[in-house]
Structure formats: structure tokens, C-alpha cells
Amino acid sequence: MTETLPPCPACASGYTYQLDSLLICPECGHEWQPGAPADETSDDAAEVRDSVGNVLQDGDTVMVIKDLKVKGSSSVVKVGTRVRGIRLTSGDHDIDCKIAGIGQMGLKSQFVKKVGD
Questions:
Q1: pLDDT of residue 76
Q2: Three-state SS sequence of the chain
Q3: Distance from first CA to last CA of the chain, Å, rounded?
Q4: Which of 5, 16, 44, 90 is the most buried (most CB within 10 A)?
Q5: How far is 17 from 88, CA to CA, in rounded Å?
Q6: pLDDT of residue 37
Q7: Residue 9 in contact with residue 38, Cβ under 8 Å?
Q8: Alpha-carbon distance 35 to 33, whole Å?
Q9: What is the pTM of this model?
């Protein structure tokens, strides 16, 4: 008896597979718990938190907490650099921003801390 797995809730692909307790879509990379409501999964993805657990929103100001090398360049984003007007995105680098002297780039929320300005 073959168990049929549900299609991916993100892209509706039928090529899902199970790895331990997660279902994974090889086409879009989405991972989810079987039986979890679809809206619960999207709520978790929509909430982005900084390194200390503060919820981030579009337009917030954050501070970099670690020296970050800029990929493909010899530039470094120094500790304490303030980034104003962030924009949240989905994906591995969940913050889009513009940093003075460097330009447009993506940051991971685990390397920033929200500041009250």
C-alpha cells in the first residue's frame, strides 16, 4: 500500500517527499509539517525576528551586530552600522536594504538588532 503525499502548499507541485517529520518540495524548497494548517505555516514565515527576538517590520531601523563580509567584494559591513528603512522579504536573506557606501543588499535577520529611533 503506497501512501500518497499532499502537494506542496507553496507551489502545488506533486513531487513532495518526506524527510523525518517534514514534507519537502524539491521544486521550490518549501518545508512543512504534515497536517499543519496552511495559515499557520504562512504566519510563521511572515514573522521575522532579529537576533534578540524583536519582531521586525518594513521601515524599521536596525543595527548590524557582527562584521559582515560583502560577497563578491572586499568591502565589510562593520559592527554598529545602522540601516534605516528595511524591507522584509522571504528567503534566506530576509531583509532588503540600502547601506551607505555599499549599496543595495540582503541581510539575514540573525545578524541585526532593532533600534528605537
A1: 93
A2: CCCCCCCCCCCCCCCCEEECCEEECCCCCCEECCCCCHHHHHHHHHCEECCCCCEECCCCEEEECCCEECCCCCCEECCCCEECCCEECCCCCCEEEEECCCEEEEECHHHEEEECC
A3: 60
A4: 16
A5: 29
A6: 58
A7: yes
A8: 6
A9: 0.59
Ranges of residues in the chain whose predicted pLDDT is under 50: 1, 39-44
Name the residue with cell 572586499.
74
Which domains can be identified in the chain, with CATH numbers? 1-39 (2.20.25.10), 61-114 (2.30.30.40)
- Residue 6: per-residue pLDDT: 87
Q: Identify residue 18 by its one-letter amino acid code.
A: Q
Cell numbers found for residue 12: 502545488
The per-residue pLDDT for range 69-92, each reduced to its tens digit, is 998 888 999 999 999 999 999 888
The pLDDT of residue 10: 84
